Amino acid sequence: MLIKTTTRAALIAALALATAAAWPRTASAETVLRIGMTAADIPRTLGQPDQGFEGNRFTGVTMYDALTGWDLSSADKASVVIPGLATEWKVDDTDKTKWTFKLRPGATFHDGTPFNADAVVWNVEKVLKQDAPQFDASQVGVTASRMPTLASARKIDDMTVELTTKEPDSFLPINLTNLFMASPTKWQHFYDKADGADAKAKSQAAWTAFAKDAAGTGPWKMASFTPRERLELVKNANYWDKARVPKIDKMVLLPMPEANARTAALLSGQVDWVEAPAPDALPELKQRGFKLYANEQPHVWPWQFSRVEGSPWNDIRVRKAANLCVDREGLKDGLLAGLMVPATGTFEPGHPWRGKPTFEIKYDKPAAQKLMREAGFGPNKKLTVKIQTSASGSGQMQPLPMNEYLQQALAECYFDVQLDVIEWNTLFTNWRRGAKDPSANGSNATNVTYAAMDPFFALVRFLQSSMAPPVSNNWGFINNPKFDELVKKARQTFDPAARDAALAELHAASVDDAAFLYVAHDVGPRAMSPKVTGVIQPKSWFIDFSPISMTP
Amino acid sequence: MLAYTARRIVYVIPIVISVALVCFLLVHITPGDPLVAVLPADASQELAAQLRAAYGFDRPLPVQFGLWLLRALHGDLGNSIATGRPVLAEVMRAVGNTVTLAIAAAIIGFTMGILLGLIAGYFRETWIDKLSTSLAIAGVSVPHYWLGMVLVIIFSVELNWLPAVGAGPGGSAAWAWDWEHLKYLVLPAITTSVIPMGIVTRTVRALTGDILSQDFVEALRAKGLHETGVFRHVIKNAAPTALAVMGLQLGYMLGGSILIETVFSWPGSGFLLNSAIFQRDLPLLQGTILVLALFFVFLNLLVDIAQAAIDPRIKRG
Predict the structure, then answer these.
(1) What is the pTM of this model?
(2) ipTM exceeds 0.90, yes or no
(3) How far apart are CA A532 and CA A529, in angstroms?
(4) H or E stretch including A224?
(5) Burial group, residue A90, by CB count within 10 angstroms (0-12, 13-18, 19+)
């Protein structure tokens, strides 16, 4: 009896212990990914994020979808545009300013309301129609310049919408990746509840409330938001793309603008993933078993030449000489510890818009010196060029050391490079004003990095003569009829493959003309705990968090 | 006392208006575009002009100042350009976090500073004095952001005892006075406390030494007063000056430290200023500077009044 009782007690105790041991595992089964961003604040959550493409990366493509999206499934191929909330689209054969988009059935907003044509019209009007109740000036800046030709939207039926552009523009489907669809119903709910002296004040209050409790259609839903401190996103189990339902339960975004702080947070186990770790900590991170990811981004670190009358860069031999005089591999392996890809144009081989330039950008000092001698310069007659740059700035990588590297490199090809270093935001402002403006301070090149996600951003705004200031970023007043003709051709070619071919032709022409001094592409370095698996870092500013898993 | 207090309050009014004017002008006269926070770099001049008008930045500067001051007097500092959130709420929230940090740092710094100062002053020219003085000099000399990083490397990265960054496990909105939250405060508070600790130590040491060498102390001792009683007199005589120094230090700490708060990602006013500067968010920048300046002015006012209450000679002066 005693043995029986003891055995039973032992069994009960063992069962209790086993249950107790199993209980914490069940209770803590939620998988959480904590990310240290480089941003000083949570990017805006109301649909159109701020803070550049880091904003789109964390509060854009996570919580929201656009009509079109980026294929982020490969680390090897260039990211291309794929269907998003639109399943197909087509330009009108007779009027090339009108596009029809077929919408995805079954997609719903996080508040449970259906995504439909009314929602598309509402979202277009939030940034384009000034008298619409939901119009929000604060979202216009980050939208309008990314889709400069979009004029209006019209519902055809519940699942079909017509978009109109100001002029024929085949780039529209690419640009639409930046127009994120927010829930009109949820916004209206906040608008109806808002206090305010007038409709404008109520609208502003509604957007402020929406930002704290947002609803898009994306794979992640907002769970909690502490401004400037943290944003918690949970997986949207009802996401329309079943293949992209997140594998982890929760993602916590933490703003950490200081690189050493981010690195320390990773090393101490406070976060699992950091963007842009401190470069000098990379060996230690590797040594401690953290994983490092980097890949070529659609990003260019250039000198943009002035082509106004009297500029030394008007001589193509000088432009080509500068491009041949820089040892980019040396810059990569030395100064930047491998964190760059040498640039041989805006797009590198393998990209659909690369084309076949005949001018090969590489390090060939003798050829560069020969070109400079032909242009009338030599060891005793150096060409003075002045470059406006900044001491820091988003995407600028390491502007001062990199420019000093170029200064030394180009000195060997008879250039005397002078640097005009100004504050980053001022450099931005001056970029819009152009080389003829007094703010250029006599500089004949400017060093502002640029994103090359879409044709307008990557090529058109720099190469088309009509994009000269004050219209857009043709800072140097490039006026090349061939570029204008190729821009027009690309914009008016509506078959995607033919459009890509036209863009490749434009890009090749720009490289052959040595339109810029192409130096580097950024690689978006990130470091993470070995517990984080399933990471695919595409050749993009963005990353898909859906396939990521966390091992215990 | 009432008249003195009223006079001091009246003196504050022109200071506050001047502070408002200076912080408004400072952010407007710097080069660059006030709309950087919402305008992408590649925005056209046309779009920039359209938004400039929408935000009222196209109006003459005096008009902008007048409207801003009028709204500020009604407690409306406008909305952040970058986030659209009301500036006052943003600032007050950040100030709340900075106050938490400042109080913790003040407790550490002032306690240590007073203790070290009294000990050093009492044992002047001994090794105890030299050790205390060395600590004080180190406190004011070591770059505090560097000290912060060293503390993080030791206590967060290597020992894994304390968190490296942040203000709490769930953000400061969920702040509680328990160890789960307090551990986030330890490293930034120690880092913030070293400068006030050094300054208070040196001040108290000098005051203590000075007072102890005065004749009345000898008289007190001659009358047979116990050393504890003598010390009470020393503390009472040193208090007004030490209080003034501590008030000033508290003012500096309440202003927040951009460097410390950035190193620890502590979401206080320094961190807020850092973001406002880098995003060039003018309403947020102006609002933050104004609120911090007002804090400083009012804190000084309180210290002045407190000093006068402790030492009646001051209000006659």
Answers:
(1) 0.85
(2) no
(3) 6
(4) strand A220-226
(5) exposed
